[in-house]
Amino acid sequence: MEEQVPNITNGAAGDPRSTTSTVLETAAAATQCLIYDAPDKGARLIGVEYMVSPRLFATLPPAERRLWHSHVYEVKSGMLIMPQPALVPRAGWERAETLEMEQVVGLYGKTYHFWQVDRGDVVPMGAPELMMSFTAEEQLADKAHLVKERDKRFATDWGHKREIRKGIEEPTIEAGELAYVVSERSFM
Length: 188
Known about the structure:
The protein is of the alpha+beta class. Helices cover about 25% and strands about 20% of the residues. The chain contains six helices and nine strands, in the order ββββββααβααββαα. Strands 1, 2, 3, 4, 5, 6, 7, 8 and 9 form a nine-stranded antiparallel beta sheet that branches.
């Protein structure tokens, strides 16, 4: 699955990042996604995201819940995409992608990045960083500009994705569960 979402790191808006995620394993408890800096053969593994169901999320202690993010905004906004394979017709792919997004919208994610390629690091340096995805429209000053290159590269359109996902049911997110959604630049 392609995760094309700007991230927040350590409370400050990080470099908006277009990343490629590969689902490594789906288990009863969690899905593990490897995050690469590009969809190419020479891509660098820069992080990992764990995704859990609302049922499992509800069992986590409150302090732990604050480290996880909802996928509602990523899915409903059209920011999260699965690149279309070359030989699959667009209509069929959009239906398959929408069905997958109906599953992802309810999951919670916890993402760690361990290679800050945007700084020019040639190897992973320093401690891994917890990354937070944007979870609300007001956190993005210019979404169209941020995803322009991604949309061009993958021949997609976030606005079109948003339109066809309007019918995806949004799960209820309890106030305070995801405390980092405080402002455009910070989290508690």
